[in-house]
Amino acid sequence: MYFKYGDEEISYLKSKDKRLAEVIEKIGLVQREIDTDLFSSVVRHIIGQQISTKAQATIWKRMQNDLGRVTAETVLSVDASQLQSYGITFRKANYISDFAAKVHNGEFNADAIWHMSDEDAIRELSSLKGIGVWTAEMILLFCMKRPNIFSYDDLAIRRGLRMVYHHRNIDRKLFEKYRRRFSPYCSVASLYLWAVAGGAIPEMKDYK
Fold this sequence. Notes:
Blueprint: H1 7-16, H2 18-27, H3 38-48, H4 53-67, H5 72-76, H6 80-84, H7 90-104, H8 110-113, H9 118-125, H10 133-142, H11 155-165, H12 172-182, H13 186-197
C-alpha cells in the first residue's frame, strides 16, 4: 500500500510553484509505502532510528517471523532480551516494551490518535519513550496518511528545498514560507523533496 494522491494535489502544487511543477513533471508519481496499523508503525519507526532502511527491514522481518502479527500482546509475550535478539539495542527494546505496556493497559489510546488534530497527535505520540517530534510527524504521514505534514527536523526535506530553490541554508522562517505555499498538501510536496534529495534528478545539486 502506498501514500495515495492524485490530480487534485498535483494540480494545486503546480499552480503554486513553478519550480516544484518542473520537479513533479520530471519525477512523475512517487510511490512511498505506508503501514496503516498504528502499533506496528510506531514499533517500526523505533526500530528504524539511526539505522539503514535495509537494516530496519531485516529486523522487522525477524520480529514478524518470531511473533507473527506484531501487537501489544505479542510484544509483551517476550522479554527485552528476546526483542534485542532481533538486532535492536537494549534501549530500543525497552522503548518498544514500554509502548506495548501502555497500549495494553489503556494508558495510551491508539484509536483516539486517529481523531486528533495533527498538532495534538504529534504531541501525544512524542510523549512516548523513544518517539520525538520528527518520528511522530513521519507516523502521521506514513501511517495515518495525513495530507499536510512538512517536517523542519527532516534533513532530507531541507536538502531538497536547497536543491530545488538554490538556497544555501533553510532557516525556520524560510521553511515556514514554503509550508504556507504547499499547504494543505505539504505531504505530497515532501514526497517530491525527498525524491530530489535522494538524487531523482541527477543534474540538481545541493547549494549548501
